[in-house]
Amino acid sequence: MAYIRITEENIDREHICCAMSNKKSDQKKEWLKVRFRDGLVFYRSEERGKCFIEYMPAETAWHPLIADGYMHINCLWVSGKLKGHGYSNDLLNYCIADAKAQGRKGLCILSSAKKKGFLADPRHLRHKGFLVADESDVGIQLWYLPFYDGAEPPRFKDCAKHPHIADAGLVLYYSDQCPFSYYWVPRLVSAAEEQGFTLKAIKIDTREAAQNAPTPVTNFTLFIDGEFKTHQILNEGQLLALVSPRQ
To answer: CA 60 → CA 4, 52, 183, 203, 206, distances in Å?
Structure first.
């Protein structure tokens, strides 16, 4: 399998693999263009499909982490007909080689004890030698792959380790890091209004806001009455099912 590196020079003509049409991925592409200047790297398979890796220095990553010296993997996704051919190993090896060439301490990535949607598969991470570095109160974990013995593990900032907000009602934090968020958030807000309640959507639009967000997952997190409810991107029906017990 051959791979294409997405850059500022070719991004406008290349597909970015996130299971969305190019038109629906426009906001994600604009987000990427700026992040390339922060050291973000994006590789995808030459064959069209969901097969890509996106990573960047942890210092510039859009998550509340204390992980100086690490490379953070935003997303490693291989699925459909491309799964089971070793392509995820290829992509991970690109990241490892790049991080080592930069003198990084290792890699880090969000996951969980058991597989959860929109997070890395812990079984695959464990197989590749990753370890759990930290865990939030809501079960989202920070895993890491150190490159040498004694490397200090990365960890969550307190705001990510103990997700909570003061606002009552439904509050949704999201960013353009995931095109699914950009697509679904307006639909969720409209669905809430149609049912007679308010969904407050807060867009995380700067790195500083992302690195101090009250959640480990900044591309989509729903709070209900101040408590973390889910990081998994919802459609209208799923949102209403979550809210119906409150009505």
So the answer is: 23, 20, 25, 18, 11
Q: Are 215 and 163 in contact (CB under 8 A)?
A: yes
Count CB neighbours of 227 within 10 A: 11
- For residue 105, how many other CB atoms are within 10 A of its CB? 22
Helices 179-194 and 236-243, axial angle in degrees (round to 10) = 50
What would the pLDDT profile of 188-197 be if each residue is shown by its tens digit? 999 999 999 9
Report the run of H or E that residue 184 belongs to, with start and end. Answer: helix 179-194
Q: 73, exposed or middle or buried, with CB in 10 Å at 0-12, 13-18, 19+?
A: buried
What is the separation of C-alpha 196 from the centre of its chain, rounded to a whole number of angstroms?
Answer: 31
Is 0.85 surpassed by the pTM of this model? Answer: yes
Please state, in angstroms and as integers, the Cα–Cα distance from residue 67 to each residue in 58, 129, 143, 177, following that order: 6, 18, 11, 19
Q: Identify whether the C-beta of residue 27 lies closer than 8 Å to the C-beta of residue 67.
A: no
Q: Are 184 and 235 in contact (CB under 8 A)?
A: yes
Q: Bridge partners of 227? A: 164, 224
* Closest C-alpha to 124, from 74, 70, 76, 157: 76
Q: How many CA atoms are closer than 13 Å to the CA of 3, on its beta-carbon side?
A: 23
- For residues 22 and 12, the answer to whether their CB atoms sit within 8 Å is no
